[in-house]
Amino acid sequence: MNQIQSYINEHKDRFFNELFDLLKIPSISADTAYKSDLLKTAEAVKLSLEKAGCDKVELCKTDGNPIVYGEKIIDKNLPTVLVYGHYDVQPADPLDLWDSPPFEPIIKKTDLHPDGAIFGRGSCDDKGQMYMHVKALEFMVKTNQLPCNVKFMIEGEEEVGSPNLAIFVKNNQEKLKNDVILISDTGMIANDIPSITTGLRGLSYVEVEVTGPNRDLHSGLYGGAVANPINIITKMIASLHDEDNHITIPGFYDKVEELSKEERADMAKAPFNLENYKKALDIEAVYGETGYTTNERNSIRPTLDVNGIWGGYTGEGAKTVIASKAYAKISMRLVPHQDWLEITELFTKHFTSIAPKGVKVNVKPHHGGQGYVTPIDSIGYQAASKAYQDTFGKTPIPQRSGGSIPIVSLFEQELKSKTILMGFGLDSDAIHSPNEHFGIFNYLKGIETIPLFYKYFTALSK
Amino acid sequence: MNQIQSYINEHKDRFFNELFDLLKIPSISADTAYKSDLLKTAEAVKLSLEKAGCDKVELCKTDGNPIVYGEKIIDKNLPTVLVYGHYDVQPADPLDLWDSPPFEPIIKKTDLHPDGAIFGRGSCDDKGQMYMHVKALEFMVKTNQLPCNVKFMIEGEEEVGSPNLAIFVKNNQEKLKNDVILISDTGMIANDIPSITTGLRGLSYVEVEVTGPNRDLHSGLYGGAVANPINIITKMIASLHDEDNHITIPGFYDKVEELSKEERADMAKAPFNLENYKKALDIEAVYGETGYTTNERNSIRPTLDVNGIWGGYTGEGAKTVIASKAYAKISMRLVPHQDWLEITELFTKHFTSIAPKGVKVNVKPHHGGQGYVTPIDSIGYQAASKAYQDTFGKTPIPQRSGGSIPIVSLFEQELKSKTILMGFGLDSDAIHSPNEHFGIFNYLKGIETIPLFYKYFTALSK
Question: Of the N and C termini of chain A, which has fewer Cβ atoms inside 10 Å?
Fold first, then answer.
C-alpha cells in the first residue's frame, strides 16, 4: 500500500461522512424554493476547501447562486490547475421511484458496486465527484506533496445551464488564469475499463407552449371542430423526426462534424454489449437514427428529445376537456461545430412555422452550450492517462460522451486552456434519475488518481 | 303574469339560495378524496325531494356513490315521467383560471346573461339543471297541479361514466317503469333561440401508457439511442389522424351513420356565425375533418381528442431527462350505430399495433356509452315543443349535440322508453371549464317550462 492508499484507508470513514453532510442539503437549482439550501451548500463547500488547505476561499456573488472560489498558490513559476465542479443538483422527482429518500444518503451494494455505493441525489453528479478533488487536495497539502498551484471554481447553477458562470469567467480572467482545467463530471466505461472523456455534446433546451381556444372547452361540444392544442403539439413534435429518425428542422445538420470511416471504426472498438445494454434498461430493442450504432447515436450524432410534456386533465379518473394550452420541454444534444444559439433559432423558426392556423405557438429558449472535443496529444491528457495507468493498471480509453457540460467550450474560449474530463461515474449510476448513486470504489479511486495527475502534469510541463 | 311565473317571482331568492347550498359541496366524482362530499350532496338532494313533495325518497346504495331515488305516484292509471339528473361535478382544475372560487357560488352579469348568471362548478352541469326539476315539482305539488306520476333518479357518477347506474337500472326495471324520461343536462342555442337536443354522441374514453426504459435516464448519455416514450407517444397519437383529419384506426368509420344531402342541408339552416364563434374562442381558424362544416364536425361526425397528456419533467426550469413513461387520456366521441365497446377494442388493437419495438404500451379503457337519436314525432318531443312555445313564444329547433350522456341509450334498451333532452344551458356557460355558470334567466325559465311539459305530455298521452 502506497502513501495515498494508506491515507485514504485511514480517513475514508470521514471522507464518507463529510460527503454525506453535503448530500443531505437539497441544493436543487431548477426550483427557486431551494434558494437557501444552495447558499447553505456553497458555505459548506467553502468551509471544506479551507479545511483542505486552500489559502484563500470566497463566495463570489452572482445574479444567481454564488460561485465558491478557492486557491492555493505555492509558486508563481509552477503550473496552475483549475478545478471546476458544481454543488447544485437535479430535481429529485419522481420521488416515489426512490428506494431511499434522495437527501438521506445511504450506502448499499449493487451488482456493479459489490463494495457498496453511496445512494442520494448528487452523489455522483456532481457533489461526490467534486469532493474527490477537495480530498485529493487535503492529501497533497497535509503530506506536503502539492507539486503545483491549484484553483477551485465550484458553481451552483450547472444543472440549469450556468447562466451566471460565463459572466464570472469573462470578468475574472486573471484570477482564473491556469494551465489546465480539471473536471470530474462525466463517467467511465466500467470499474475495470477506465476511460477519459474527450468529447461532449452541446445543448439547446427550449420550452414550447401551444395555445388553442382561450379557455378549456367541453370535448363533446367542441371536439372535432376546433384545434385541440394537445393533438396539435403531438403532431408538431412527431414531425420533428422523419421515418429514419433524422431531425427535420431545416439546416439542423448543416454544420454537423462527419467522422471518417477510420474514426468510426476506432470508436467501434470500445467494449459494448448490446444485449446487456437492452437488458439493463428492460427494452426489447434500441431505437434511433438509421445508419448509426448505439454508441454513435449517443455521442457523435445530434438528437432531439422531449424531456417533459403536459396539458389538459392529468388527475385521477376522466375529464372530457379540450385544454386551452399544451406544453413541452425539448432538448437538443449537439455535436462539435453546431452552434447552440443558431440551432435554437432554427428550432424556433421551424416550430413556429409548422403550427396550423387555429393555434398560437410560443418558444422560450431555456439555456444551452457548445459541444467540445479535447485532443489526446495534449500534456493534460497525457498526464491523466499516466495517472490512470498507475491506479487502474490499464491505459484509459479516450471516449466521446453524449452528455453536455456547456461551460467547457467557454473555458477554452475565455481562459485559453484545455479541459481534461476525469470522470469516475458509471453510466448505470442513474444520475438525473431516481436512486442516483456513486460507487465507493469510484469515489476512493478518484481521490487516489487525482494527486497523480498533478504530479505528472507538473512533470510534463517542465 | 301567470300562476307559475308568480310563484317563481315570489320564491326565486329561496330557489337561488337552495341551489347555492348544493353548489358549495365539492362533489367531484373523478377524485376519491371527495367521497364524503358526494354522500353529503346525495343527502341534500334527498332532503330537497322530500321537501318538494315526493312521497318516498331513498338513497340507493351502489358500489360507488349512492343514487337518490324519489317518487310521487298520484294515480297508477296516469302516465309516469322519470327525471334523470346527476349531483356529481367535474374536477375544478385548473383552479387559477377561476375568477371566483369554484365552490363559492356567486351571481355576476355577463354579455350573454345581462340579468346575471350563477358562477360555480356544477351550476349548469348538472346541479342547476337538475334542481329546476325539483323546484318545478314543488310548484306542481304545492299548487295541486301535478297532472301525472313522477319519479326522480339522481346519480353521483355521471362525470365518470356512470359505472354503477347501468346495474341499478337493470335491477330495478319495475321501480323505474315510466312513459318518458326527462333530462336537463344539455344546452340550447341561445336565450332567444330555444332548441331541444335530439341526438347525442357516444363516447369511448381510454388512458394510454407508453413505457420505454425501466427508469428515467440522462438525456445526454442515452439521448438518441433509446426510444424516448414521450417522443414515441407524440408520434403514435399524431398518427391517429391523417392530413384530412380523418381518424386512421382501421374500421373506425365502418358503422358511422352517413346523413343525406337533405339532412345536412336542414342542419345548415341552424343559426351559426363562424366569425363570432372564432372570436369567442380567440382563434384565427377552426380546424377539423375535411369536407364537413363546424356544426357537422361537432355533432354528426366522430372525433378523437386528447384530454390530457403528461410525462417527464414538468416543473420549473429544465431537467435533461428521458422519462421512463408517458401517458395520455384520449376520448372518442361516437355517432349513432358506432358501438363504444367495439370502438374501444379497435382503438386498443390499433394503438398497441403501432408501437415501435423498444416501448411497451398499455391501454386502459375508462368508460364509454352509445350515441342516441330521439325522433321528433314522439309524444314526448311534441309535449316539450309545446311547452317551449308557451314560455319562449317560439318553436324550439331540434338539434344534434356533440356531447354524450352515455346512459341515455341504456335507458331506452332497459326501460323501453324515449328520453327528452330539455337542456337550458348555453354552449358559452363553460361547463367542464373554469368559470362555469348558468344564467338566472335559464334557471328560472327551466322551472317555468317543465310543468308545461308535464301538462302537455299527460294530455297527449290520453
Answer: C
